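Archive maintenance. Older records in this collection stored only the sequence; we are now back-filling the structure field for every entry so that each record is complete. The fields below show one back-filled record exactly as it appears after the update. Entries are processed alphabetically, and Cell division ATP-binding protein FtsE is next in the queue.

ARCHIVE ENTRY
Title: Cell division ATP-binding protein FtsE
Organism field: Telmatospirillum siberiense
Length field: 228
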Amino acid sequence: MRHPTADRANVVQFDNVAVRYGYGPEILQDVSFSLPAGSFHFLTGSSGAGKSSLLRLMYLAQRQSRGRIVLFGRDIATSRRYELPALRRRVGVVFQDFRLLDHLSAMDNVALPLRVAGASENDIRKFVPDLLTWVGLADHLHAKPPTLSGGQKQRVAIARAVIGRPDLLLADEPTGNVDDHIAMRLMYLFEELNKLGTTVMVATHNENLVSRLPYPQLHLENGQMRRG
Ligand SMILES: Nc1ncnc2c1ncn2[C@@H]1O[C@H](COP(=O)(O)OP(=O)(O)OP(=O)(O)O)[C@@H](O)[C@H]1O
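Back-filled structure field:
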């Protein structure tokens, strides 16, 4: 899934980006930052500061109201509509509300990105159980999401986001439902992925994580971004 342009320059670039919902006020204003290829950043800010909105811009679920967003070297606003799904497939997302498919087992949820990418069933049987075991779900491979706890669902969601080794991983409060020990283990997974070249951004309120790991912080406050 690795793409040559992901190894160069910035994977994400925002120039004076603003977001508003409907006719409401701008909840993000003049946000400018870049994520160099292979970087790891935390995104912090109080509840309602706009972290999820910023991530949504990056996985193309939300349009900016002004400013320029360049993703994998492509200006989103001037890209053709048919070009966007290919960009989106290069982004792994851990959603705050998980968004698992309830009728599929943990295994099949995690296998989804591999199936979409055309992986063989052999590879799926080889890699998916290993990853689910690594995140502590060896006993729940065949469980469906409604039978899992919040923390277990979160780990399935994380496994699904990382299994295809995306060029960019965006995680929205990925440790909100697990204890500190599991949180550090999940962060280790993100670090391993980052070492393989994935650019990572983790939005979190967890100050313990932010202070224990040596990554720069982008902080949202009053609709503006500053470096921590
Ligand atoms: N779909 C929407 N329609 C209208 N307003 C929205 C919508 N989504 C978010 N907002 C508003 O935008 C602001 C930022 O919300 P957002 O979810 O991005 O913040 P956040 O920093 O991720 O918060 P949290 O940490 O609580 O998840 C909030 O004031 C929120 O009410």
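Update note: Residues 10-226 form a domain with the Rossmann fold fold (CATH 3.40.50.300). Residues 84 and 182 are 34 Å apart (CA to CA).
Entry marked complete.
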